[in-house]
Write a structure and sequence with these properties.
This protein has 508 residues and is α/β, with parallel strands linked by helices. It has 20 helices and 18 strands. The protein has 4 domains: 224 residues, Rossmann fold; 92 residues, Rossmann fold; 76 residues, Biosynthetic Threonine Deaminase, Domain 3 (Biosynthetic Threonine Deaminase, domain 3, 3-Layer(aba) Sandwich), CATH 3.40.1020; 89 residues, 3-Layer(aba) Sandwich (Biosynthetic Threonine Deaminase, domain 3), CATH 3.40.1020.10. Strand 3, helix 5 and strand 4 form a beta-alpha-beta unit. The longest helix is centred in the N-terminal third of the chain and has 17 residues.
């Protein structure tokens, strides 16, 4: 176990080493964000690296530090993204053999990028954990050094060079630095350097709320392995924080914030508007946390720095990010409204909504009495306006439900409102994350056989490594236990949405 003082030496050595391949990236002032949020906001531009992410710093620092004997045996790692490119570039620069084990779900754009750096790519399993297990097995068999993406002092020291540059570049002194957190290598490195130089600067880590491994470790006082994580921000989707990373973070990091997918998407848009660069979801994590912190603590006129950590985003994901950004910015409300099934009802609703833009309106005849309407409403004044709107509609006698934070509503219902199915008896509705690869659905159906009828199905490609699927099954009461066993054995994330309000209003 290294003492914190020893990291000073490691970081100094890293500063002499990493710039053989890494760039000294800009610290850019963000004028639009600063004006909008009444603080001076700066972006540390790690998207400017040749691999469009900070990961090259830690990967190269560790690989370049290996003995000649170890280097000659080659290096191996497991990654679906930025770390893979960092290891491949580092090995290529040093003329070393490298093997990158990637999940079968990895998008072709990332596989091709790694291959262009002369790395051997092995596709194994459907998840990062599958790939890591196989990489460690190959490492033992071949004698190749496994390069951890975050849990190693030299990786941490390499990432710390981001903090070294930041302090040198800032015109005064930052009040708070917001850092994205996955395994914790970047936040541990930045905290180790920053706190050694100025203990008054706050370091705040930011995680996706669907992968809160460091946040949970802080709360519980020990590292735990999350049973299930969401991978929207795939660059930070980690089940367990690194051991060394957690040790440093618990001593030096002031706080860990959690942000939603909607907040991340809004931050992607914010960065684009100030820089004309498009971050990947994990690359915008820190800014999402910064905005949340400002709103909650009402701070003004502070020097705030956020790490723009990467820009390896798949083009196909941009549609999905754009759709959710309006919800993340609180510029759109999704609501369910019941109106009389009679001529003129829609006109009266539009009148009662006032001079607001209707962004979406979904409706299908259900019965002679009432119509269930799924509506998107543009907002100009955020959550306060939404609350006032809902109260206004209820005061006029409408039955209104806010669906803006309902995952099923956002991901599925808004695209498939088509009517109720009272004939679908004994229906159970589940939401899944399928591996985004050919044959995934066929495998699912083959495993299920002919045991239960599928009564509902919706899938939409989001350009991610997984597909979001909503499925309905007709399952008799006496077969519920058998069905649950089948679902549990599939080995993919799932959620029972049978009681979801949006489903009940529009599809049940």
């Amino acid at each position: 176990m290294l003492m914190f003082d020893e990291y000073k030496k490691l970081i100094k050595e890293a500063c002499q080493r990493v710039y053989e391949v890494a760039k000294r990236t800009d610290l850019d002032y963000a004028p639009q964000l600063s004006v909008r949020h009444n603080n001076k906001i700066w972006l540390k531009r790690e998207d400017q690296q040749s691999v469009f992410s900070y990961k090259i710093r830690g990967a190269y620092n560790l690989i370049a530090s290996l003995s000649k004997k170890e280097q000659n045996l080659g290096v191996i790692t497991a990654s679906a993204g930025n770390h893979a490119q960092g290891v491949a570039l580092a090995a290529n620069h040093l003329n070393l053999q490298s093997i990158i084990v990637m999940p079968k779900t990895t998008p072709e754009i990332k596989i091709d990028s790694v291959k262009r750096m002369n790395a051997e790519v092995i596709l194994f399993g459907n998840t990062y954990d599958d790939a890591k297990e196989h990489a460690l097995k190959l490492s033992a068999e071949k004698g190749m050094r496994y390069i951890s993406p975050y849990d190693h002092p030299l990786v941490i020291a390499g990432q710390a060079t981001v903090g070294v540059e930041l302090l040198e570049q800032h015109p005064s002194t930052p009040d708070i630095i917001f850092v994205p957190v996955g395994g914790g290598g970047l936040v541990a490195g930045i905290a180790a350097h920053i706190k050694a130089n100025n203990a008054d600067i706050k370091i705040i880590g930011v995680e996706p709320d669907e992968a809160p491994c460091m946040h949970q470790a802080f709360d519980l006082g020990e590292r735990i392995e999350l049973e299930q994580i969401g991978i929207f921000a795939d660059g930070a989707a980690v089940k367990q924080a690194g051991e060394e990373n957690y040790r440093i973070a618990k001593e030096l990091v002031d706080e860990i914030l959690l942000v939603s997918v909607d907040e991340i998407c809004a931050a992607v848009k914010d960065i684009f508007e100030d820089t004309r660069s498009i971050p990947e979801p994990a690359g915008a994590l820190a800014l999402a946390g910064l905005k949340q912190y400002i709103a909650e603590h009402k701070i003004k006129d502070k020097e705030l720095v956020t790490i723009f950590s990467g820009a390896n985003v798949n083009f196909d994901r941009l549609r999905h990010i754009a759709e959710l950004s309006a919800l993340g910015e609180k510029k759109e409300a999704l609501i369910a409204i019941m109106i009389p099934e009679s001529p003129g009802s829609f006109r009266r609703l539009c009148h009662d909504l006032g001079p607001r833009l209707i962004t979406e309106f979904n409706y299908r005849y259900a019965d002679k009495r009432m119509a269930h309407v799924f509506a998107g409403i543009q907002l100009k004044q955020g959550s306060d306006e939404k609350s006032a709107l809902i109260k206004q509609l209820k005061d006029k006698g409408y039955d209104v439900v806010d669906l803006s934070n309902d995952t099923v509503a956002k991901m599925h219902i808004r695209y498939m409102v088509g009517g109720h199915a009272p004939q679908a008896e004994n229906e159970l509705v589940y939401r899944f994350e399928f591996p985004e690869r050919s044959g995934a659905l066929l495998h699912f159906l083959s495993e299920m056989g002919e045991s239960w009828n599928i009564s509902l199905f919706h899938y939409r490609n989001h350009g991610a490594a997984y597909g979001r699927v909503l499925m309905g099954f007709q399952v008799n009461e006496d077969e519920r236990k058998k069905f649950q066993n089948f679902i549990s054995k599939l080995g993919m994330p799932y959620w029972n949405e049978s009681e979801n309000l949006a489903y009940k209003k529009f599809l049940s």
